[in-house]
Design a protein that fits this description.
One of its GO terms (cellular component) is cytoplasm. This is Glutamine-dependent NAD(+) synthetase. In the C-terminal section; belongs to the NAD synthetase family. Belongs to the NAD synthetase family. Keywords: ATP-binding, Ligase, NAD, Nucleotide-binding. 37% of the residues lie in helices and 19% in strands. By secondary structure, it is an alpha/beta fold. A seven-stranded mixed sheet has the order 5-4-3-2-1-14-15, covered by helices on one side. Strands 6-7-8-9-12-13 form a six-stranded mixed sheet, with helices on one face. A four-stranded parallel sheet has the order 18-17-16-19, sandwiched between helices. The model has no long low-confidence stretch (mean pLDDT 95).
């Protein structure tokens, strides 16, 4: 391309609250961009504060620290222009992007469209901007937008009317399993509507229950996709813009080896787990390894996220634990090379039951005794976590969490739950995908994948004693949770009325359990927690 505008997109992680460290990282990337001949380097939404900073934004000292670091970055531009996200306080607080050049803050764009749905809560903290921001760099007219602005037609139309040829959008757009297709469709539409090319830069990294994938995009003025950055990869992405044709070209962007649905989902879970552990300063993790598929997949994820040397697995058998479970757990632990322990909990469970027997007089054996086994395991694991300083991972999946097929203070114990938003059918898909990866190690024993799922809390128990088959259960849950279909609509789709009523009842009455569950990475469109918030006490059925 002749007479092109060369720039860089910093698809990197900028953690929440790490204001000084974020500024230092931005300065390093500015130096790299300058050395490579970029005219502009863009950083993600709320670069300095991290996203979402939540109630940190209510602290004047936090806002002041962000603006102080912004001034420091501006002073070090040295011939480079930088677009940096920050919370801008002017009596009211705006989600802002500052254009830094020639040693000063040259221009500030305020986010105009404030999302207040799903995981977003922008209207709690920010006031909307009302002015379009367009700048000129190297004779190229550039419109500046922030995340949700590009999902609405008017902000892009306004910068186009003001003469923009290229729109740079900085984002903190969380990932879910439908998001990338939606992004590409929206960006293609905006480019066609305005005739502007679009450089879409997204944050990457895990923040509590939200995972940002990067997956930045270049879109030509005719709406065609010029380049896709890989998901969950930190990279400084170089690009060139030709104003004559309003086309963009990526320069040496890394490519993902596998872009399948399972590969991207697995990467999201690994990134979310790694960032949660590392950003909270834990030396490693431990988990209960039962010989079942959920704990087996969680162990593989933990090893891939942190390395085997930072992972401990604990098998805690009782008389109901099968040889298949014992053998499968040991084989996986040995194959993956993790620290492994076997603790027989039968004497402890017997002691609990012995102590409680007088108070249980006149009551038959029921799920109480089953839950005592699970709660004994939870107590053991929490003790090990306390003693060794390792964070405990809960291993439950979304299907179980939805219907309450889990035990409070038992298998729900843990500070993070990697599979919390992963349906059971997806657990199977991910396990088979992980085993198909090169490396020569069967990460998850095939016997564990192929066995009938069981909690092994009583003799000859299987999950299907209490639940519909998981294919059927997940199909009903997906309709009820993800798309908010009514029971009548689900039944009309061909599901048995009795089964639908039973599943929906279980979802509704177990809200109290989910309120007490560990956080985990959001990977669907309706995750339990900050996104799906139903009342515990409700007469609605």
């Amino acid at each position: 391309m002749a007479n092109t505008f060369r720039f860089a997109l910093a698809q990197h992680d900028f953690p929440v609250g790490a204001v000084a460290a974020n500024a230092a990282r931005a300065r390093e990337l500015m130096d790299e961009a300058r050395a490579g001949g970029a005219a502009l380097v863009a950083f993600p939404e709320l670069t300095l504060s991290g996203y979402p900073p939540e109630d940190l934004l209510l602290r004047p000292s936090f806002l002041a620290a962000c603006e102080q670091e912004l001034d420091g970055l501006a002073a070090s531009t040295n011939g480079l222009a930088a677009l940096v996200g920050f919370p801008h306080s002017e009596g009211e607080v705006f989600n802002a992007a500052a254009l830094l050049r020639e040693g000063r803050v040259a221009q500030i764009a305020h986010k105009q469209a404030l999302p207040n749905y799903g995981v977003f809560d922008d209207k709690r903290y920010f006031r909307p901007g009302h002015a379009s921001a367009v700048t000129t760099l190297n004779d190229v007219r550039i419109g500046l937008l922030i995340c949700e602005d590009v999902w609405r037609s008017e902000p892009a139309a306004a910068v186009a009317r003001a003469g923009a040829e290229l729109i740079v959008v900085i984002n903190a757009s969380p990932w879910d399993d439908t998001k990338q297709d939606e992004r590409e469709a929206i960006l293609s539409s905006r480019a066609k509507e305005t005739g502007c090319a679009i450089a879409y830069l997204n944050l990457v990294g895990g923040q509590d229950e939200v995972v940002y994938d990067g997956a930045s995009l270049l879109v030509n003025g005719d709406g065609s996709i010029a380049a896709r950055a890989p998901a969950f990869v930190d990279a400084l992405l170089w690009a060139s813009f030709d104003p004559a044709t309003r086309t963009l070209q990526a320069e040496g962007w890394p490519e993902a080896a596998d872009t399948s649905r399972e590969a991207v989902l697995y990467a999201a879970l690994v990134r979310g787990t790694r960032d949660y552990i590392d950003k909270n300063g834990f030396p490693g993790v431990l988990l209960g390894l039962s010989g079942g598929i959920d704990s087996a997949l969680t162990l593989a994820l933990a090893v891939d996220a942190l390395g085997a040397e930072r992972v401990t697995a604990v098998m805690m058998p009782t008389r109901y634990t099968s040889k298949l479970s014992l053998d499968g757990a040991r084989k996986q632990a040995e194959d993956l090379g993790v620290d492994y322990h076997v603790i027989d909990i039968e004497p402890t469970v017997d002691a609990f039951i012995g102590a409680l027997t007088p108070a249980f007089a006149g009551k038959g054996v029921d799920t109480t005794e089953e839950n005592l086994q699970s709660r004994t395991r939870g107590t053991m694991l929490m003790a090990l976590s306390n003693k060794h300083g390792k964070l405990l991972l809960a291993t439950g999946n979304k299907s179980e969490m939805a219907v309450g097929y889990c035990t409070l203070y038992g298998d729900m114990c843990g500070a993070y739950a990697p599979l919390k938003d992963v349906y059971k059918t997806a657990v199977y898909r991910l396990s088979r995908w992980r085993n198909a990866q090169p490396g020569g190690v069967e990460a998850i024993p095939v016997a564990v994948i192929e066995r009938p799922p069981s909690a092994e809390l009583r003799a000859d128990q299987t999950d299907q004693d209490s639940l519909p088959p998981y294919d059927e259960l997940d199909a009903i849950l997906g309709r009820f949770i993800e798309t908010e279909q009514s029971q009548a609509e689900i039944i009309a789709a061909g599901f048995a009325a009795e089964t639908v009523h039973r599943v929906v009842r279980l979802v509704l009455v177990n809200e109290f359990k989910r309120r007490q569950s560990a956080p985990g990475p959001r990977v669907t469109t309706r995750a339990f927690g900050r996104e799906r918030r139903y009342p515990i006490t409700s007469g609605w059925r």
